[in-house]
Amino acid sequence: MIRLTFSLNGRPVRLRTAADKRLVDLLRQDLGLTGTKEACGAGECGACTVLMDGEPRLSCLTLAAQAEGRELTTIEGLAPAGELHPVQRAFVERGAVQCGFCTPGMALSAAALLARNPSPSAQETRQALAGNLCRCTGYQKIVEAIQAAAAALEAEP
Amino acid sequence: MSDHISAGHAPGRTFPRQDAPSKALGAEKYAVDHYGEGLLWAGVKRAGVPHAKLRSVRVEAARREPGVLAVLTAGDVPGPNRQGVVRDDQPVLVEDKIRHCGDGVALVVAESREALARGLAAISLDITELPGVFDPEEALAPGAPLLHEDHPGGNLLLEGRLQKGRGAAALADCPFVAEAVWELPRQEHAYLETENGWARLDESGAIQVIVSTQTPHRDRLEVARALALDPARIHLRAPYCGGAFGGKDGVTVQSLLVLAAMAFPGRPIKMWWSREESMIAGAKRHPARLHYRLGADREGRLKALAARLVYDTGPYDHLGGVVAALGLEHAGGPYRIPHVELLSQAVYTNNPIGGPFRGFGVPQALAGMELTMDLLAGKLGMDPLELRQRNLAGPADASPAGVKLAGVEGLRGCLDALAGHDLWRKRAAWQSQAGPHKRRAVGLSALLHAMGYGPVIPDEARARLVMLADGRFRVYSGVVDMGQGNASTFVQIAAEVLEQPAHCFELRQPDTDEVMSSGSSSASRTTYTYGNAILAAAQILRARILREAAAILGPRVKPGDLRLAPGEAVHPGLDAKVPLRQVAERLSVERREAEYHYVAPTTQEPKAPDQTLALHGFPHAVYSYAAHLAAVEVDELTGKVEVLGYVAVSDCGRVLNAQLLEQQMQGAIIQGLGYALFEDFAAPRGRSLTPDLATYIIPSSLDAPAMENIFLQSKDASSPLGMRGAGEIGINGPLPAIGNAVARACGIAPRRFPLTPERVLTALGQLGDRP
Amino acid sequence: MSRVALPRDLGELWQEMDRAPQAMLYAGGTDLLVRRRSRPQPESPLICLERVEELKRLELRGDQIYLGAGCTHSRLLASDLVRQRLPILARALAVLGSPLVRNMGTLGGNLATASPAGDTLPPLYALGAWVELASPCRVKRLPLCDFILGPGRTALRPGEIILGVAVPVPLQGARHHFEKVGQRAALAISIASLAALIETEASGLVRRAHLAWGSLGPRVVTCPAAEQALEGGGLNRESLSRAARLAREAVSPIDDQRASAAYRRRVAGNLLLRLADPA
Ligand SMILES: Cc1cc2nc3c(=O)[nH]c(=O)nc-3n(C[C@H](O)[C@H](O)[C@H](O)COP(=O)(O)OP(=O)(O)OC[C@H]3O[C@@H](n4cnc5c(N)ncnc54)[C@H](O)[C@@H]3O)c2cc1C
Ligand code: FES
Ligand code: FES
Question: What interface predicted TM-score (ipTM) does this complex get?
C-alpha cells in the first residue's frame, strides 16, 4: 500500500491504496466516482477517459501510483457542482446522449479539445474523438454538439 | 386521435431527454455502478471448447485460493437449471455437455476481483472433446453430431416455409434470373456496458437484483424457473442500459447472480463480464447464408422468387426461431411477386450463440433481397431505382410472404424522395470527380420492418401514471430504456396530454415491484405499445383532474369549460384558476393513480402455415418503411471503402420527437455501416478470432459519414398516436445500399460481407479469381 | 500487489533498477498494461518512466533531430520540429492508435515493443534513424535496423533502456509519404504500411529513394532493389510498377485474421503506385 496525494476535481485528496490498482478502479470503487466508465479495459474504447493535468487519458491503463501529484478531473468535476459545462449542455440539447455510457469520456475529450482549439472544424472534432467509441449515436449529434459548444464558448465574454 | 395532442403542439418538436443531463454529468447510476459495503465478486468459468462431454470440474485448487469463498457447479443449482424463452435449452451451469466455448461450467464467488481471477484460473476441467458442427449445412447433414439429443428437429431449431403461386418452378419462365448466395457475418452488439448485475439476499428472503437487461419481468420468471424459486421473492430493477440492441433481451448474468446471492445471504454480489467474456458468452446477430433466385420478365416485372435463408443459431434457442420467422416474413422485401417459394431455417451449431440484435433476422433477409435486386437490375440493364419503383407492392397487394403491407404507399414516397435527391440525380457528375486510383458509385436499398410480437404473443402494455400530492406527476416506465430514450417519450406523451412542462414529471425506471409487465424493450414496439398505454392513462387522469377542478370552482362549472396549464387548471371564461396541488389534495390516492392496459393490433392474415410459425411471430400488422442511399469511394490500390454520403428517407408514421427519431436512425445506420464494412465475429470451428475490441472492429468517429435523414409522416389509423416502430428499420439499409454501391464501383458484386479491403481488392480482380 | 516506482531522473531510475533487477519498465503503459491484463503477473514490481526528465528531450542537435524515448506521440505530433522537418514521421504518428493512446504511448515504448505493426518504425527506418541506449555505465548508439531483431525482440540488454532516437534531418524539399492500411480510420493496427522518403533533383528526377514497409514481415521490410528502380528516373507509372513488383518479391507477410499474406503482398506493391499522384 502507498500513500497518494493528488488533486481530484479541484479538491486535494490523500489516500492509501495499492500502487498498482488501476486508476479506473480507484475512482469507481474506492472513491465512488462511477461517472468514469469501463468498457474494455484495454485502451480501445475511451469510456474510462479522465483528464490528467488537463490532458485526456485512459484510466484503465493508468496505475494509481501515477496520480501522485497530478490534477485529475473526472466527469463529475468537469463543471462546478449543480452546473453543466458548455459541452455537457450542448450534448443534452443537441441529442448527443443516448445510452450515455460513452458520454463522460466523450465530454472530457471534447472539453480538452475546445481548451486547445476553440473552434475546431467538423473533421478536427472527429479526429479528437477517434479514441472514444460510441455504439449508439453514429457520432453525428456528438460532433454537432461539440461545434455548438464551441460557438457558445466563443460567444461568452 | 385525441385533439389536445395535435392542437397547439407542433408535432415532432424536440422534447428534452429526461436522462440526458444526469448521463452527461456522470451521475446516472447504471446497473454496473452499484457496489456496496462487503461486496463480493462473482464470475464464471467458461468452457473454452466448443463441444465436449464434461466429466468433472476440478474445483479444489480454486477453493484453496485465498479470498475465494465458494465455487459452485451444476450440482449446486437448485431446480431444473434450464433457461430460455421459447425452448428452455440452456443450462445455467453445464451439467454434462458443453455446447460452445462460452458455456459456463462453474461459478466462483470471491472477496475481490483479483481473488476471483485467481479462483477462475485455478479451475480445470475434465472433458472429452466431441466432434462439433460449425456450419449449418454440416449440422443438417444426416448423421451430424447433435447439439440437443432431445430436440425432435435434430439440429434444426425451426424452419418456416411459404409458397405462393407456382413457387420456384416459375423461375423457368423468366427470361431474366439473378442468382446468388450471400454470406453475412456474425455481428456483435458491442454495447459499451457489458453484461452485469448486482444482487443481495435480504433478511426477509427477498432477493434484490439490479441488472442491465431489456426484459426485467420475463427475466424474473426465467430465473425463478431455472432455480426453482418463487418469482415473488425476486425483486428486479432495470436501470438505464449502457446499450443493449437486443443483446440484453434474455438472461445473461441473472440466474448466476441470484445463485451467488443465495449462497451468501446479506452480502452484495456483483458480476460484471469483461469485454472478452461478453464477446465469448454473449449472443450475436446470426450469421446467415442467403440463397436467392429472382426472376423478371422483359419489362422488368418481378415474376418469381426462390429464397432459402439459413441462420446459424449457435447452441441454444436464444430466440433464434423468432429471428428465422421474421426473416421469412421479410425475405421477399416490399415487392409484388406472383410466384414465391421461401424457406427460412435456424440451425443449431457449436458456434457462438445467435440471438436478438436490432433487426431480428430482417437485416439478413433484406440484404439478400436487395442485393439480388441490383444483380437483376444489372441483367435487365435497368436503373435499380426504377426496378424497385416498378415492382413495389400496392395497397391491395400482399408481400411475397403473403402479408398485407399496410401503409406501403409510404415506401413509394421514400423512393420518390431519393429519386429527387441530388446525391442520386447528380451521381454521374459526382462519380466522375473521383481522384486518381479512386472509384465512386452510389447504391440503394428499399426497406420495410414489422413492429411488435406478431399474432400470438400479446403485445400489450400496462402503463402507470400517478399524480403526486404536490400536483406534479410520476411516470412509471414499464419498458426498459436501453438508450433509445423511450422513457422520455413516455413523459412527453403524458406531458402533452396533461399540458405540463417536463420538469413537473418524475420518471421511474422499470422495477418488478412497482409495475406490471409491459413486455420487452425490443421489436420496435416499445414507444408504440407503451406509448399508447400511457396516452390513455394520461387521458384518464386528465379527465379526473378537470372534473375535480370543475367541482372546486362551483356547481355551474363543467369540466369541459376548463383547460390545463402548467401547474393549474384554468377556466378562461371566468378567468378562474385552480392550482393542481389543490386538485391533488382533494383526490384520493387511488384517484390520483391511473393505469391503462393497451393491446397492440395484430393480424391473422395470412394465417401462418403452421402454429409454430405463428408462435414465433408470423405475421405482423404494422410496418415501417424506408429507402437508403449510400455514396461510396473505393480505393483501387488497397480495396478500402469509404462511405462519403448517406441519405435515409423513412416513413415511421407520425414523428413524436424528431431528435429521438434521428438518434435512432443515425445510430442504426452506423451500426449497419459497421456490419457492411468491418464487423465479423469470426469463429472458425467455434473458436473466436476476434475476442476483444482490438480485433472486433466497430466504426469510430472517423469512419462515420455525416448522414441526412428525411422523415415522411404517413398517417397510421391503427395507432392513436400515429407513430410506428422506428428503432430497427435503420439497420436494414446500409449493408445492401453499400454493397450495391461497391458492386457498381467494382463491376462485380462481392458475395461475402463485411466488405473488407481484401474482399474488395479481390472483386477488383487483383487477387486471383474474382468471386 | 506490485510496487510501482516513479523515478524522476536517470539517477533514481538506475537506483530503482538496481534494487529490483526483475522489475518491468513501462512508460505510457499502452502496450505493457494491456499485456499485463491478459497475463497478470501480480507480484513483479513496476517502474514507470513517465517522469524521467532525461527521456523527454526533443531538440535539434546539429544535423540531427533528437527525440527522447519518453516523448509521447502527441507531444511529437504537436512539435514544430517534427511537423516541419519530419513530416513522414508526423503522418505515421497521426494515425497511430487514437488521440488517447497517443497522449500516453511513447516513442521508446513503440520501439521496445518492436511489433511488426509498430507505426513509428517504417518512417524511422526510411529516415535512417539511430537508437540511443543507456545503462548506468554507458551510452551507445545503434542503427535502428540493428536494434530491431524480430517481433518483440530488440538488441536491448537487461539493465539498459532506450534513451532516445537520433534522426538525420532529411534534405529540404524531399517528398515525405506515409500510408497505412488498417481495418478502420482510427484505432487500427496496421495491415500494411509504407513510408517513403524521396529526394529529388531540381529536374524532378529521383536522386535517392528510401522505402520501408510495416507489417509485411517479422521486421520492417526494406528493398534496395525497389529503391534503385526509382532512382535516376521520375516517379511514374512504369518505374513505380517496376518497383512494386520488386517490393512484392521482397516482403514476407503472414496470414492473420486481419488480412491474408496474398493481400498484404499485393498491397505492398500497390502502395508505391500512390507516389505517382500529386503529393
Ligand atoms: C488501443 C491501442 C491502440 C494502439 N494502436 C497502435 C497503432 O496504431 N500503432 C502502433 O504502432 N501502436 C499502437 N498501439 C501500441 C502502443 O500504443 C505503442 O506501441 C506505444 O508507442 C507504446 O508506448 P508506451 O509508452 O505506452 O509503451 P509501454 O507499454 O509503456 O511499454 C512497452 C514496452 O516498452 C518498454 N519500454 C518503454 N519505454 C522504454 C524505454 N525508454 N527504454 C526501454 N524500454 C522501454 C517497456 O518496458 C515495455 O516492455 C496501440 C495500443 C493501444 C492500447
Ligand atoms: S475502458 Fe479504458 S479504453 Fe476502454
Ligand atoms: S451513447 Fe451509447 S455508447 Fe455512446
Answer: 0.98
